[in-house]
Design brief:
With 252 residues, this protein is of the alpha/beta class. The chain has one domain: Rossmann fold (3-Layer(aba) Sandwich). It has a seven-stranded parallel β-sheet, with helices on both faces. Helix 1 links the parallel strand 1 and strand 2. Helix 1 packs across helix 8 and helix 4 runs parallel beside helix 5. It is globular. The two termini are 33 Å apart. The structure holds nicotinamide-adenine-dinucleotide (NAD). Nicotinamide-adenine-dinucleotide binds next to helix 1, helix 4 and helix 6.
């Protein structure tokens, strides 16, 4: 990708060992960004960072469980200590958790989904904004889901958490619109990353594709292209949005 807008920008990505996060890191490395990568999967994260460094990227990788506020805060601090600032943050770490009917969903299922998907984003936004305020601005992208703007059948806990991500996003965007900090969310439909192909949703791809007006699932690269558009420094008047990347499902 030859997008000069990202050259030299310091970009933090959580869940960077996974599908969307890893691909986004690779695209931004090609564009000359300095990367700060976090994931709770320390081995996967180190593999990812090593690959990127081999191709010449400037990468700091630090294991980070986003359910632990101190680790989220430490990742932001590591970005500042290595590169002096934080221009862009992508709160992408997430997990589906239980896939079962709402009436069978337990308190533990709900707690898990909220901790990873909602509290993790809340902690990230809080510490990233504190840093961005000290340096005069920045951009944040929170990864929600199509289940964050509509129903998530058999995904009640995940859907609740991804709805919360949009509430955090909109509130932060409005509170910090005059601080030159943009905050947006992205809401993808199912895409064949490990989350879909290795998790509890494995084997459902054909059925899920049939639910889209395009009659196919989005490639991870198509989701990442929309992520890049939202965080681009050129995209300076878009804030507080929850962009569906869903082949038109939400247009019905
Ligand atoms: N793939 C899809 O179909 C889809 C659709 C909508 C939204 N999403 C969202 O996109 C984001 C990225 O998912 P993906 O599809 O790349 O899945 P993935 O499973 O490939 O990647 C998720 C990454 O998050 C990491 N992670 C999980 N819990 C964590 C924690 N507590 N702390 C730090 N890291 C943690 C995992 O180790 C993994 O590397 C998630 O927020 C997911 O909910 C995915």
């Amino acid at each position: 990708m030859a997008d000069a807008a990202f050259a030299g920008r310091v970009v933090l990505i959580t869940g960077a060992a996974g599908g969307f996060g890893g691909l986004l890191a690779a695209r931004l490395a090609e564009a000359g960004a300095k990367l700060v990568l976090g994931d709770r999967d320390a081995a996967g994260l180190e593999r990812r960072a090593a690959n990127l460094r081999e191709s010449g990227a400037d990468v700091l990788a630090k294991p980070c469980d986003v359910t632990r506020e101190a680790e989220v805060e430490a990742l932001v601090a590591a970005a500042v200590s290595a590169f002096g600032r934080l221009d862009i943050a992508v709160n992408n770490a997430g997990a589906t958790g239980a896939v079962k009917p709402l009436v069978e969903t337990t308190e533990a299922d709900l707690d898990f989904a909220l901790a990873v998907n909602a509290k993790g984003v809340f902690f990230g936004v809080r510490h990233q904004i504190r840093q961005m305020l000290t340096q005069g601005g920045g951009a944040i992208l929170n990864v929600s889901s199509l289940a964050g703007i509509g129903a998530g059948p058999r995904l009640a806990a995940y859907s609740a958490a991804k709805h919360a991500v949009i509430g955090i996003t909109r509130t932060a965007a409005v509170e910090h619109a005059r601080d030159n900090i943009r905050v947006n969310a992205i809401c993808p439909y199912y895409s064949p990353t490990p989350l879909l192909s290795e998790g509890p949703l494995a084997g459902r791809a054909d059925r899920l594709a049939a639910g889209s007006p395009m009659k196919r699932l989005p490639e991870p690269a198509e989701v990442v292209a929309a992520m890049i558009a939202l965080i681009s420094p050129d995209n300076s008047y878009v804030t507080g949005q929850a962009l569906a990347v869903d082949g038109g499902i939400s247009a019905y």
